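Researcher: Hi, I'm a grad student and pretty new to this. My advisor asked me to get structures for two proteins we've been looking at. I'm not sure of the right format, so I'll just paste the first sequence and hope you can take it from there.
Model: That works fine. Here's the first sequence with its structure tokens right after it:
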Amino acid sequence: MNAVRRGGGLLVAGTTSDAGKSVVTAGVCRWLARKGLKVAPFKAQNMSLNSFVTREGAEIGRAQAMQAAAARVEPSAAMNPVLLKPGGDRTSQVVLMGRPVGELSARGYHEDRQRKLLETVAGCLEELRATHDAVICEGAGSPAEINLRRNDIVNMGLARAARLPVVVVGDIDRGGVFASFFGTTALLSPEDQALVCGYLVNKFRGDVTLLQPGLEMLHRLTGRPSLGVLPHRHGLGIDEEDGLRLSLRGTVREASTAPPHGADVLRVAVLPVPLMSNFTDVDALAAEPGVVVRFCDRPEELADADLVVVPGTRGSVKALEWLRARGLADALARRAAEDRPVLGLCGGYQVLGERIEDHVESRAGVVKGLGLLPVRVRFAPRKTLARPAGTALGEPVEGYEIHHGVADVRGGEPFVTDVTGGRPLDGCRVGPVWGTHWHGALESDAFRRAFLRRVASDAGRAFVPAPDTAFARLREEQLDRLGDLIEEHADTGALLRLIEEGPPGGLPFVPPGAP
């Protein structure tokens, strides 16, 4: 059933970063997809180290990949045409249409971006609107960042260019949501305000009737209605942009609430290395009953860990410095000497090797690694972006690769064998120390269970993986819960009208300082 004409659209903005824009966008996508609409997510510009590789080999933000899953469509570069990957020292790698095009300072990017990127962004949005019934766009940060408005291509600049109605999301759990709604609106120009059509309260706890007087007063002050109050729900985060807590918040099952299948639980410690990327790799572990995942940054916190994970990072050399400065490098070496399991993923794999030769990211030259794996890594100017598949521990495994480092493996056993598509074997294992460039491998259920059985054996734990944990199914259930959140608690009739008809005329101007 097509309730809207082709090309309808909506921009989900937020009073702050992490107000819930990604979750609301995904929820609206799933709600519309369940109505039979062909819907696509869109984020003009994303700043994140949490990325994904599409089937055509393009790198986009993982949040947009998950929003595409919510919409039940294949993710593409057009859904996130500009991705900024921070690299420290006030610079970011600019990924345009899924391919890295260079490093820019924040000042250089802001001064140059509108002229070079707005045309690309507008073209992608136009393409999606021409081929979908609705496109649900996600803003970035706050639309009231007035210092950035002149060159904005992701918030009100995009809304103005595409004549998109804007819904502003506010996180009431932080407090001050009414002031945030009012202040966000009041700081915008009259032309931008004309596109702001209403507010969505997110993460509300308690009796919603107690909130009603405030919502009515906000409506009187701004002339804009509340479009819903979304209750606080645990475990509804998707693969958002950054932040340690988001990974575990985004899991679809809390391990502590599910009893283990064996006599023991399995304790996993994740090291939050600088410029950590794709920390969602551990979500599949945390989804397993009886697996407890925590982030640890002190050597003593690793004492009772059955597995230590060194996750991906966009700064392998920085990660090495950090590990050594905190005594964690020595703690990892002791684990290896005691035959206790360690897993390195992408950049974490690189730091476990013998040396890193980097004239691309850090430009540090040759740097000594931790020496736990017989691997030498050379950073190449061309980034590897791939969606490989193969066999590991006798089970099928799939993943995705995002790295400049090229590994020269000089011993041990390969992590992944029988790789399809003519690609070389990946990764390395020496005793209980494992490393691979593949992200997402732990989402392959049979491989994850085989790996956890091996870890439990090496750790001396009577842990048994659950035979029926299907990560893809759990993710689908999570996305359905997001769709339920919108369908049950948002004014879906008003949202459909905005998507279909665009912003209504006659919305009042709210001057700064109005009562």
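Researcher: Oh nice, that was easy. Here's the second one.
Model: And its structure:
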Amino acid sequence: MTANGARLLDLVCGPAGPLPETYQRYRLVAHLGSGGQADVYRAVRLCGGVSSAPLTVKVFRVDPRRPLVDELRSWDKGDAALMDLNNRGVQAICRRADGFYGPPPHRPGELPDAGDAVPYQVYDYLHGINLREYVSNRAGLAAGARRLNAVAALDTLAGVLRALHHPQEPGATPVLHMDVKPSNVMVLATGEVKLIDFTGARYWRPEEITQIAYTPESGGPEAFGGTAQVGPAYDVHGFGAVAYFLVTGEYPREPGRQSQAGEEAPPAWSVLRRHPVLEQVPALRDHLHHILADRPGDRPSTLELPAWTDRLAELVRRCGIPDSGVDWGEPETARAVGRAKPRPPVAGTETGAFQRIEKLERELVELRAALGAPDDLATPAAVANGAAVPARTRVASEHRFEALDGPTGEQQRVSAVRPGPQAAASSAAAAPVPVSPAAPPGSAPAGPAQIRGRASVPPPKHVDPTEAALDQGSGQWPGGSERPREERGMLKRGWEMSGIGAFFAFICWGIWAASARGRLAGPLLAFCLVLLVAAGVFAVSRLVGRVILVNRLGRVRRSAKGAHAITGAFLVIAGIAYLQQTPWVMQVYRWVSGT
């Protein structure tokens, strides 16, 4: 849905596969945010009319200023690193569920726009908000609110960096996240944190790091020294930026400024901020500036981060700086948490109302597919205008109003980094939406199928295998969509096999015609007839392939190699037949074979 809640987003996407439904594998139901490299959506996976639990789909945008192959290779490097980390079992990071190339998102039932495929990445959907929003919203300052434990969050982040920089698996290559910052740390309702956005992640190898993601307010200056200067200390600087933000509520470096008249030109990178609170506490200031040093060698190593965090927590508790809404006390041990009673969610991350919204979105997706209702009739805006909406759709819309108008909500912001100022990503704000008035007296009462918050799965439709093929009269693909058009250029794909067969037949015909010692008019006419028959064999092969592969099996043909292979085999057989009619060739064959 849009930020103002006026319309439920309804787009589909998927990989370019042989089955037509793969183009609509994922249905995008809400826009979460946009960054410099991608748009992020909440989505569900569709299979057999059943929608999955929420997922996060990231649709990358191709930069027209860079070669396409460089853009795709850059995405593939980050995707490979994240998939490897998931396979290693690294905890507290986003889990990659899928990755593919496909057409841009499009409306259900419509063919995607022609053009280059774009990269997609699919992750688990994390219920919560990022750390930047959590601290900026001051949610932890409310009376009685459960706060995020900053020490536990930093310890978790330090453990993630240790797993990335010092993998325990034999032969595993270290990985650099390259963009650790508050907005890439998700705060979950349980109080846990997870590191997200591995778009810029790279294996720590010189040939892998060909570009560097740099955010001025949190990035290390070594980004301006070239790829050879970037190493684990770059992520350590990002870790320090997160710690600085937890303490002060601000980023550690200035966003950048132009030199004034008479001033010395500032460095290319952003300089450290002089925070008034830290200037009053030199010990705390020096401790934070240590991990944010301009020179990578002056910072603590990855393995020293737990001890550095313990010292930071001690200084914060002792100095009594202004409260930023996080807890700097000792984190609870796993054993204590296991014995404790269930705790309320961390303030600002309550997901009960938002989970009801997500459930409603899934129900509307299923209802649209089952009822075939136009999109405009299933939107809250249409309901507000008094449009005729089926009863089940109207009940779902009322439920949506209740969820959006609840006491708590959730905002999630997902951003991608590009060189330059940090891109602002809009949060999906939940706002009340007018609903239709109550049904007039005397109208049919709602039956059991209209229970609020529950949608029945549409019963499976029986499909006769003989009717699953393309309808020749309507030209429709199974499922109601148009059959993908075959490119004319695909007929040339595989022509080498037909060409080799024709060349072999021509040589054999020449040998036979030369041995005949007569006029060439008759043999030439016979050879033309052979070529004409070969063309007929090619056409019949294509027709049979269309009936079996396209109409019956629903496959999409991308070449004519099969028909060319059959045609080439026919021409080879014709050539052998010419040789069999040449006396001296047969004599040589009998002499060689001894028959």
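Researcher: Is there anything I should tell my advisor about the second?
Model: You could mention this: The first strand starts at residue 11 and ends at 13.
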